[in-house]
Structure formats: C-alpha cells, structure tokens
Specification:
The structure is a single chain. This protein is mainly β and 710 residues long. The chain is built from two helices and 52 strands. The relative contact order is 0.13. Residues 10-30 and 468-474 have low confidence and may be disordered.
C-alpha cells in the first residue's frame, strides 16, 4: 500500500476511535447488554433511539403492525435467501423472522449460469396482513410479481406469480376488494386482484391516480386506507429526493398531494463525509412505509443512500397536518430528528442489535444473516464434511464476479473489520479462495493454486458494465498484487472498511495477530450494477473450467470500532465548552443582554466561565444548560435567553433533546418548537433556535462539538 494513502485511511479511523474512547462511560444509558456495545444498536438505553435503525444496508422498507407486533420487509435483489423479514415489539429493536424463500430460482441466470441477475432480482416488497394471513408481494425484473402467503410470519410460505408491476403496493379494502397501485409516473394504474390473488380482475372499472397539475408523485408506492380516506405514499427517484403523499376520499379520486419530506438528509452527505463541501445537498430520506401504534402514534420507516455501505433505514415520527401524514414534529414538519423518544408501543425491551454477523460455523447451520450471491449449489458447500468449518468446493468460473457459492453479509458501518481464518490444504490447481468485497468494481484477497504452487494475491475486477450484464470482457479481473509465494496453508484474511472515506484495506496474517496490509485502499462505491452496497464474501472458484478442490473457512469475526461511542454520549453533570462545527466559535453568555451568543475562538470571552455550561440531566436524553450564575438557557419563540427560574421547575423552554450525529457532531433541539440551536458562521452574535436540521457538511452553524472542562 502507498504509505501516504495508508496513513490517510488509518488516520480517519484512529481519529474517530480515539474520540470514542476518550468519552466512554459518560452516557446516560449505563449497563447496556454486552452485544449492544459491540454491534450497532439503535436503542440508546435511555428511552431514546438514534438512526439509522441498522447501520447496514436495508432497502425499500415496508412495515405493518399486527396487534402489538411489527413486521418489516426489505429488498434482497440477487441475494439468497430472498426477501428479508424482521419482527419487533417496539419499532426500534428488531430481530430476523426469516425469508420468503430460501432460493429465488427462476432460471439459469438466477444461478449464475450463462448470465446473472445482478441489480435485478427481487425488490421493493409490500407486506400486508388480512384475515389471519400474511402476504408479501414483490416484483422480479423480467420475471413477474411474486405473491407469498403464510399464516405465520415464520412460514412456510406458499407462492404464486402474476404479471410484473413496478414498485407496487396492495390494499385490502373494507368492502372486500383488493387494490394494487404501481408505476413510476402519472397516471398510476389502480387495478383489482382476484380474491385468491392468482389474477387481475379484467372487468373492473379503469382507475388511476392522476397527479393534479403543478404536483408531483414518484415511485415506491405504499397504499393505505386510514380513517376512511385513501393514502398513497411515494418517493421521487434518485438520491437527493423527497417523499410525497396523495390523499383522496375515494379510490377513484380526485387526489390531493403534499410533500411529506423536504430536503431531509439527517446529516448524510452525497460525497464521502471526509470530502463533503458546504454546498453538499446530501442524500435525503425517501421511500418508506408507515404504521401506527396502539397508543395512536404514527411512525415511518424510510430509507436513504449511505454511500458504498448501501441504503439504510431510519425511524421517524409522523405528524398528521390538515389530514396529511407528514414526517416530523409540530413546529418542524417535513424534517426528522436523528435522535428521538422511542415509540409508545406499550412494550419495554432492553437494547439489542439486529445483526450479529460473527460465525464460527460450529452450530451445524449458517448464521441466518449470511446470504448467497445468486442461488447456491448445495452440493458444493458443507458444514458437516469437517464439522466446525465452512467448506466451499470450487466450481468453475472465470473470475470472482461469475463465481457461484460466494457467501455474503452486509458490512456494518460506519466502520467494520471483517476477519476470517482460511485453511487451503484442499485446494487443487486453478482454485482461487479467499475474502472479497462484492460490488462493481470488486476487490479481494485470496490464495491462488497452480501446478507450480500457491500465491497469496490481492485482486480487483470491473464487474458487469450494466444491470444484469452477462460478464465477458467487461467483467474480467485486473492485474493482481502478489503478497506472498507459497504462504502457510493456514492463514487469516482481513478487510477493514471505513465508510466515512468509502475505502477498504485488505490485509493478511500468518498467526492471526500481526496483519500486513496490501496495496492502496480500495475505493468502494454505491452503483447501479448490483444496486447494492459492498458485501464481504467468502469464495472459492476454479478457473480451469472444471470443478476444483475445497477451502475451509473458520471464525468469521466482525469488529465494529464505532458501534457505540461518541454518537451516544451525553456528559451529564459535567461542565462543557460548546464550539461550532462551522467556524470553531464558542457558545457564551452575554450577561448584559441576557442572551446566548457565540464568540470567536480566539476572544477573551471564550476562555472565561461565561463559555462554560453545566449539563443537567432531565431524563430520556434531554438536558438543560445551567450557566455560572445559576440561570438556565431558555428558548422563547426563536430567541435564546438566560432565565432565572427562582426555584421553579424546568419546563420545555429550558429543555433540549441532545442529538448526536455520527462523527462527533451534536445538535440541541428545543422542545418548544422542535428546532435546533444555531449560530451564523463567521458572524458572532445572538444564538437562535431556528435550524430545521443538520446540513450534510455540518458547516452552517447548527452542529457543535463539546469538551469537558471540569
């Protein structure tokens, strides 16, 4: 690896990790279960949660409530098992319920035989529950609409197929009719399905959702009937796009349309975070389903792009305004808090991660979070031939892109280190076995066996040039870097992904302790060829045109250095200095005017007690700021003043939701208007409570850094 590139990559990781460790044990969420400290967990343990729900890819979410249970489904594209189903009791902590099918096998291309379904597969599922039966509808490009049904969310699932429909949603109406809306542009057809869901009703009235002049709708439909009114939620296609909502008193219309989300990025950049400029528009939340709780609250689970880690989902509150469901809170509609109070579901649960990716292959079955790239050949892999390891027999392939039986997982963000132990004594000439990142382009590290011996190599390849491409010259592996000749037959392979930089470093070890990096950092991307983020993959294929030997994999371990750190820390009871992330200015007290101001970092005021604030715990991640003379920071309309409570209790005016974004940035939401404290960059003066949310580059005065000063 180039020395300067390697230093830059690890500097970004080290900076985040050091900040994480320096402020550990300050959180108001003590005593978390061990797994919740090692793997990303949305639940903060103090009555709040932070987005994303899973710091790993989960696309095109749809959610329903059945009694006191919630179910969430998402896109799996070319991965198998297909159509992931999650279950929750509180909308924050989720667990895997299963998949609709173990194998989405609709022809040779689905098995990586004479073609592929990269970026096609099965996508945008719709989940519904009616008369004691769960239904999941999901389209497959070029194959048709798949209809799955089961009396139990855990299966087994029956299946039939209908003609394909783009980004569909289904509604079981009160009068017994079953409607399906689909399409990516107005007018959107609203068709009827037969009661057995095996056909479309051919003689039903012609219905359409027609967008009024001057309005817009998108794709990714979610159709509901709520309190007698029809509601269709859709998203404009793209990364920096909004979600829209259409409402009508009749399924026949007319439809009125409102913007449901407006320019809400939750601080996610369109460029990699370390390269974001002040003009960065960010990647906005869009395309998601919604549901209510028994207490009457409404919530939406909605996705947004996150660079090469893929698309992820966030849980955001919904406020009904003039009969329209809008994302956000009163006073700040169409925006969403990154941290907020957990939904009132009537259920209390301790924090737990949804995804624990580790696997030592000792259980006789795979960790259910593994997915195969395309449909596997079950005769060519085993957990029983040598108990305690995963054995992959090499099938013929020209390169990693075309290799069958590559076993994949999501890489957790914002940073993750995947390590696996590899035994190569079973390889034969032509075999290539190791650890790779499946994407387009792809890269990996592996052992290559020839008649002359073995070499350890890092390789890269272009992948297919288009969605569903057929390999060939546009999918060839590029020149490899040879790391070692005749390496030990037992070795450890590693890939370290940093999604703040969208880079990955491959390394290897002969003892599992000391690792040697290879090559320059691999640039990871989100692209539309696979239509997914990068996926760590275990592989073994043979380039001779014939089946080869076998490789044994063991102890797949995933380290998440930032699974829980400064994103969750609140320095309760401490005195802190607060500095603007935009210009480094300090928040300070203007005693004469009785207001909160920001002062230049090099000013005398920045070094006095007037720039110190005691963080008072109000519970549920909420705080008050007490200044040196005993007054409290208080919000009146948009102004921020200092208030002497004279022994009275703290109220909403003095209460702030402490909202930590990733990478150490913090925001303070006033409970009076659900807006955030803000300064004007490079313009010292009065602080206001006017910011509607974080700008992606976090340079507009709404994001702060904190440092303990006592």
């Amino acid at each position: 690896m180039n020395k300067s590139n390697r230093a830059r990559f690890f500097a970004v990781s080290l900076l985040a990790s050091c900040a994480l460790m320096s402020q550990a044990a300050l959180s108001d969420s003590p005593g978390l279960p061990g797994a919740a400290t090692r793997h990303w967990t949305a639940d903060n343990g103090n009555g709040t949660y932070s987005n994303p729900l899973f710091y790993g890819e989960f696309e095109d979410p749809d959610v329903i409530r059945v009694g006191s249970d919630y179910y969430l489904v998402g896109t799996t594209m070319h991965m198998n098992p297909a159509v992931e189903i999650l279950h929750s009791k509180d909308l924050v902590n989720w667990e895997l319920a299963g998949y609709c099918t173990n194998k989405l096998d609709l022809g040779p291309a689905y098995r990586l035989e004479a073609g592929n379904i990269y970026g096609r597969g099965i996508w945008a599922p719709c989940i519904r529950y009616h008369n004691g039966v769960f239904y999941i509808f999901s389209n497959v490009n070029g194959a048709g609409l798949q209809v799955f049904r089961s009396k139990s969310i855990y299966g087994p699932w029956e299946h039939n197929q209908l003609p394909g429909r783009h980004d569909l949603s289904v509604l079981f109406d009160d009068d017994g009719k079953i409607y399906i809306i689909s399409g990516g542009g107005s007018p959107y057809p609203i068709e009827e399905l037969t009661q057995d869901l095996h056909a479309f009703v051919t003689n039903s009235p012609r219905r359409q959702l027609v967008v009024p002049p001057g309005s817009r709708m998108g794709e990714g439909h979610h159709l509901y009937k709520i309190k007698g009114r029809y509601v269709d939620v859709s998203a404009m296609p793209g990364g920096s796009v909004d979600q829209m909502v259409a409402v009508a008193d009749s399924i026949d219309g007319p439809w009125k349309i409102e913007r449901m989300v407006e320019s809400e990025s939750l601080g996610v950049t369109s460029a990699t975070p370390i390269h974001a400029q002040a003009s960065d528009r960010g990647l906005w939340i869009h395309q998601g389903g919604m549901c209510d709780t028994p207490s009457g609250e409404w919530w939406c689970i909605i996705m947004s792009d996150h660079g090469s880690a893929g698309r992820m989902v966030s849980l955001v509150p919904v406020t009904w305004d003039n009969a329209f469901p809008l994302i956000g809170l009163p006073g700040n509609l169409r925006k969403a808090p990154n941290t907020w109070i957990k939904p009132n579901t009537g259920y209390t649960q301790e924090p737990k991660p949804t995804y624990i990716p580790d696997d030592n292959f000792d259980r006789g079955k795979l960790n259910p979070h593994w997915q195969w790239n395309h449909v596997p050949d079950d005769s060519a892999w085993s957990l029983t031939e040598k108990p305690g390891v995963l054995r992959l027999h090499a099938l013929p392939a020209t390169n990693f892109w075309t290799a069958r039986n590559s076993l994949c997982q999501r890489p957790p963000g914002p940073e993750s280190i995947m390590t696996v132990e590899l035994e190569t004594t079973g390889l034969t000439a032509g075999d290539n076995a190791g650890l790779a990142l499946l994407s387009a382009p792809y890269a990996g590290i592996g052992v290559v066996k020839t008649t002359e011996g073995t070499t350890l190599q890092m390789f890269q390849g272009s992948g297919g040039g288009r969605r569903g491409g057929f390999g060939g010259s546009n999918a060839q592996a590029r020149a490899s870097i040879i790391a070692a000749t005749n390496p030990p037959s037992r070795l450890w392979l590693r890939v370290h992904c940093n999604f703040d930089a969208d880079e990955a470093v491959f390394s290897w070890s002969a003892d599992g302790k000391s690792f040697t990096p290879l090559g320059d950092p691999f640039k990871t991307t989100f692209q539309l060829t696979t239509f997914q983020g990068v996926r760590p993959a275990l592989f073994n294929f043979n380039t001779s045109g014939q089946p080869g030997g076998y490789a044994d994999f063991d102890n797949y371990l995933v380290d998440e250095p930032r699974a829980r750190g400064i994103e969750r820390e609140i320095p309760l009871g401490k005195s802190v200095a607060l500095t603007s992330g935009a210009d480094g200015s300090f928040l300070a007290v203007d005693n004469r005017a009785g207001v909160l101001v920001n002062v230049p970092a090099d000013s005398a005021e920045a070094k006095t007690r007037h720039a110190r604030f005691q963080v008072v715990d109000l519970g549920k991640g909420r705080v008050a700021f007490k200044v040196s003379d005993g007054r409290f920071v208080s919000v009146a309309e948009a102004g921020v003043t200092l208030k002497d409570l004279a022994g009275k209790a703290l109220g909403d005016s003095e209460s702030f939701q402490w909202i930590n974004l990733l990478r150490g940035d913090t925001m303070f939401m006033s409970l009076t208007n659900h807006r955030y404290l803000a300064t004007k960059p490079n313009n010292p003066g009065a602080v206001t409570a006017t910011a509607t949310g974080p700008t992606p580059a976090r340079k507009s005065g709404e994001c702060f850094k904190w440092n303990i000063v006592d």
